[in-house]
Amino acid sequence: MTTTENRPVAGTDPRTGQELPTGIVESTPDEVRATTAAALAVAPALAALDRTRRAGLLRSQADALESARGRIVEVADAETALGAARLNGELTRTAFQFRFFADVVDDGGFLEAAIDHAGPTPMGPRPDLRRMLVPIGPVAVFGASNFPLAFSVPGGDTASALAAGNPVVVKAHNSHPATAQLVHEVLTAALPAGALGLVFGREAGRQLVADPAIRAVGFTGSLSGGRALLDIIDARPDPVPFYGELSSLNALVVTEAAARERGAEIGAALVGSVTGSAGQLCTKPGLVLVPTGPAGDAVVDAAATALRAAEVVPLLNERIHHSYLADTEQLRSAPGVQTIATGRPTAAGFGVAPLLVGAAADAVPAEAFAEYFGPAVVVVRYAEPAELGSVIAQLPASLTATLHVGAGERVPDLVAALGRTAGRIVFDGFPTGVAVSWAQHHGGPWPATNSLHTSVGATAVRRFLRPLTWQDAPEHALPPELRDTPEPTLPRRVDGRLEPAVERS
């Protein structure tokens, strides 16, 4: 919903830096209020949908995305320069994500249904108690700059909130407004009116977070942006949950044994992880710990060679471009930092040169522990285990930590130390690429995230639910999942014992 009274919202072609007119304008305060009111009005109907129909809605979203694949990829590529291959893969992931959450809904375990029948206890008679998780209400979602699909209008926050039975209002990211509008049009054709709203503009985002209809906020972006939204939430008369995915260094450790066995292989593959999507991934490894000596030299030399040859897409927007240039210049001039290699810059637009710098473990400057959103990586050389442990102790919390070890090598102390700072430990691989699955987690201690559950994996649904207990309720007042008959189609804990779902023929 827009009017011609507000400022236009234009995209930008990162390949040229030229503005891309969209015909979109910023949402007015009245339009934001109307969008949240529509979400609040449809919330009871969404919450009342049985699991079969809710799962069907999610699968219809996946079908709608795939039916419009060509148009979506074309528009998204014009606004992000991420390339058709990357964007097609992202669209496939996003459709899969909707279907995955449909499977989560079908399973029903996410509701945590529990029944304690009335009866005697050592503390006296117990009433009949039945508990499960219920939808929290309208959810505000902020689209991310670096994922125009998987973490934006149709992303994990939206899919998991809909799976939980809540309407969603998305604040579109200004890096890809036309993509946001197109995807919104595609998805809303298969949803009840008000179930998925969309607003544009920074002020609209502030108003959205403060709106009393909004019961939770999902955000993927910068630490400063997350703090600004938290300030708005704290000023509300009724503060609501904020689920932020904010900042991550994602350290990678190479042991001496791993460097001896496959140092060149690790170095070359590292560069692919650092420069993919121009390093604009929240899981990009930003600091790599490599042993001194010939084995470590093989890692660094291979990385330098690969980085000089890497082809890197432009950065997403002018702000990211400016920050990358300014921040990496400060990194290069920090005490104890040496430039090892620079890559080939893109000629026009928001193109930059990838960067590999080095420092010694006994003199690592604070700049080495910062996140650089772009194709830059810091290599820290350690001479002995004590130096390695000292650097690990200084690492900020991150989404991931990666460990490359030799064949048969066991390093329990390293695993434990890295596990204290990260939400996911990757062994002998690279952290870029986050599979959608039941066991996945995409978080970490602050400032990586500020919540136990995140936008990837089945537990993403848990963020947008709240517990509700029915005491001595008649059968007709209970949701189907908590009734004694018919037999349940979801796992439940009954009188303390976990009972599996009963298969229906």
Tell me how many strands there are. 21
Number of helices: 13
The share of residues in extended strands comes to 15-25%
Distance from N terminus to C terminus (CA atoms, Å) equals: 46 Å
Helix content: 25-40%
Name the features.
globular, 505 residues, 7-stranded mixed sheet, alpha/beta
Describe this structure in words.
The strands form 5 sheets. A 7-stranded mixed beta sheet has the order 14-15-16-13-12-17-18, with helices on both faces. The mean pLDDT is 94. With 505 residues, the chain is α/β, with parallel strands linked by helices. 50% of the residues are buried. The longest helix has 24 residues. The two termini are 46 Å apart. The radius of gyration is 25 Å and the shape is globular.
Summarize, please.
The chain is α/β, with parallel strands linked by helices and 505 residues long. It is built from 13 helices and 21 strands. The model has no long low-confidence stretch (mean pLDDT 94).
Write the layout of secondary structure elements.
Layout: E1 8-13, E2 18-25, H1 29-48, H2 51-67, H3 69-80, H4 84-107, E3 114-116, E4 119-121, E5 124-126, E6 129-135, E7 139-142, H5 156-163, E8 168-171, H6 177-188, E9 196-199, H7 202-210, E10 216-220, H8 223-235, E11 242-245, E12 252-254, H9 256-275, E13 287-291, H10 294-309, H11 318-332, E14 338-342, E15 355-360, E16 376-382, H12 385-394, E17 398-404, H13 412-419, E18 422-427, E19 465-471, E20 492-494, E21 497-499
Parallel strand pairs: 3-20, 7-8, 7-10, 8-9, 10-11, 12-13, 12-17, 13-16, 15-16, 17-18
Antiparallel strand pairs: 1-2, 3-6, 4-5, 6-19, 14-15, 20-21
Helix pairs in contact: 2-4, 3-4, 3-6, 4-5, 9-10
